[in-house]
Amino acid sequence: MRRHWQRAPLVVRNAVPEASGLFDIDAVLEMSTRDEVESRLVQLRGSRRWLADGPFDASEIPSLATPRWTALVQGVDLHLPAGRALLDRFRFVPDVRLDDLMISVAGDGGGVGPHADQYDVFLLQLEGIREWRIAPPGDWPLRAGEPLRIIDGFCPAESHHLEAGDMLYLPPGWAHDGIARGPCMTASIGFRSPARTELLDAFFEWLAEGNGRAEQPGQHPGERYTDVGSRPTSNPGRIPPGMMTALRQWIDGWRPERTATEQFIGSFLTEPKADVWFEPPRRPLTRARFIERARHNGLILDRRTRAAYTGERFFINGEAYRANHPGFVTWLRALVDRRHLPPEVVGRFIDSISDAGTEFDTIVYAAYRFGWIHPVPGGARRKTDPV
Q1: Which residue segments constitute the domains of the chain, with CATH numbers given?
Q2: What is the 3 state secondary structure string of 130-147?
Q3: Which of 84, 137, 229, 301 has the fewest beta carbons closer than 10 A?
Q4: The pTM is what?
């Protein structure tokens, strides 16, 4: 983080020694046939690339013996426990910056072409060999007639061959071109980096829905413009200067409350993608049974859940909550930081927050009923360090 994060590329040899075998190529390709999984297929035909969006029929996916193609499967962490476990290795960066895990499978010579991303990325080789040609940020021209944002006239400054377990980190803006040297599989760990316009567009849409409309002292939300005492005009097309001044002052003088903007930011950063959905329990446990099960097996966040906190405010999948009980705040922070808590920790905290029943019900038990939090299944207790 001190030397390379958002500064300079880094090649880490044997970064994940057990990378080979973490994912089965056939299973990853099978994911591209599902409606609920975002996937793409890029094929090179001559000097041009052909792009198609999934889901695909199994017969549409080339064999590994076929050269010059790449299948990209997005959000693997949302669908496979192994994907979530791999993404968890990168939690030295705050969760609100983590995006998802994409896996690409390619035949010999396959790749999406030279391009530049505006976010950080870790490229972990899972199987086979991929050559990465990279170059510093620049004003790269784009090739016309391509379905992807391909750099025209790409001139690499470095070249690295990555084998299974090797990893390449690239800061935002670094151009890169990954070429499969034989059949291979690569994991791409991407990060969220909201653009200012993206944030403001979402914020103003949120305001338009009636949120964050607290007025400054002396302002009244129901106030209307008045021009009592004005004289007849001989220029009816002209905006009256007094009207322009009054309405401009309304806009210039309006400021959302800090609590409102913080609520929006936390919700914005934890909002799941549009194609993410949760499965509530078919037969929800009663509150008492839920606590009993959590005491016995522990609690775990659903692998699709995005959660964060600041102070006593908690944000889960775009929803904002506030906790006031000090012990409950500590308990929730531990759950969000670790994503899972062993039974002994769950029991100890529940005993210490027995007087925080309402907050527990409206946040934790409600999240369980939404499918955001689960008691760890019996026989699958997860190991963790003491909290």
Answers
A1: 10-191 (2.60.120.650), 287-375 (3.40.366.30)
A2: EEEEEECCCCCCECCCCC
A3: 229
A4: 0.87
